[in-house]
Amino acid sequence: MLASAPVSTPMNFSKCATADQGVPLQDPTPFRRLVGKLIYLTNTRPDITYVVHNLSQHVSSPTTVHQQAVFRILRYLKQSSGGIFLAANSELKLNGFSDSDWVGCPETRKSLTGYIINLGRSPIAWRSKMQNTVLRSSSEAEYRALASTTCELQWLLYLLEDLHAEHTQPVLLFCDNQSASQIALNPVFHERMKHIEIDYHVVREKVQ
Question: Is CATH 3.40.50.10150 the right assignment for the domain spanning 94-207?
């Protein structure tokens, strides 16, 4: 792939590769090996986490479309600067960004949880994971992502405490869904929110 033309994005975001596209690969071993290496690479490249997560679901029966998608990641890595910069003078303050891709999987219609957590200006934790069940509203999908991010932030606070690093400021958690934000702030527990009661109490407790 050294002579290939670079691309500016790791995937074509207008369409997502599904299991029924393309011709099955005669020998899927190279594809599986390459996806395994890319999974390892996500430890230092959060920008490819989503697309690698998507392709890893097809390692059992990959097709030519999946192969082209994994080649595109290599073309993206060729032109992009890699690695994570951990600033030595960064502020000791946790902040997180939570998001969800509602019914993002075209095959199962399950939603995806995505978050990234920074310590000051340095990213230290991130995740892209399919949610366990099909959800009927974007608010619920966003709120489940919010709950996962909240639990990760709490764990990082415990870790900082074990390292004797004092974190005195409130943790900031950013969410782009107005409904999910209102559920977290509203002390009145509505009837329509009973199905997300556990996630509600987790986030609500930390807000208080």
Answer: no
